[in-house]
Design brief:
The protein has one domain: Rossmann fold. The longest helix has 12 residues, at about 80-90. It has five helices and five strands. It has a five-stranded parallel beta sheet, with helices on both faces. It is α/β, with parallel strands linked by helices.
């Protein structure tokens, strides 16, 4: 039996790579249901709904959601940064309250506090998968093996 009922994983996944897949599968080890929220960013080169579909095609058993509106990316952008994110996430999850957040970045600590749940960091130093979506966008061919299979076509 898994310790948590609902786990939340958020990210841009622009594009989704093996490190993202690892993080989501890691979350599946702890929670009965993993909810993956795909961020909506100004100037994004790929739509959130497409990234959501790639993740659903690659990782069975998740519930994925694409945020419909552009979201602030840093607390310096607005004093309401954390309340905006909290409301957007609860709306995306149709009111489901996560009891766990898994993230590969330090924001997970603050987000877990705001969402009133636990946080488990995973591979923040990117030792397991030394890649970022930025690296893929800059040179997809050099980093091709890190791209998840469903995004390759």
């Amino acid at each position: 039996m898994k310790k948590y009922k609902n786990c939340l994983v958020i990210g841009k996944f622009m594009p989704p790579h093996k490190g993202h897949e690892y993080m989501i599968r890691f979350a599946q080890e702890f929670a009965e249901q993993v909810h993956v929220v795909v961020d909506c960013v100004k100037g994004q080169p790929m739509e959130p709904i497409v990234r959501k579909q790639w993740l659903e095609d690659e990782i069975r058993g998740i519930k994925a959601y694409a945020l419909p509106n552009f979201m602030p990316q840093d607390p310096s952008e607005t004093p309401d940064f954390w309340p905006i994110w909290k409301n957007a996430l609860f709306n995306a999850l149709d009111g489901v309250k996560p009891d766990l957040i898994v993230a590969a970045m330090d924001y997970g600590y603050e987000l877990a506090s705001v969402m009133d749940c636990e946080f488990i960091p995973v591979d923040i130093s990117r030792e397991s998968f030394p890649v970022s979506a930025t690296m893929l966008r800059q040179n997809v061919y050099e980093n091709w093996d890190f791209l998840i299979d469903s995004a390759k076509p």
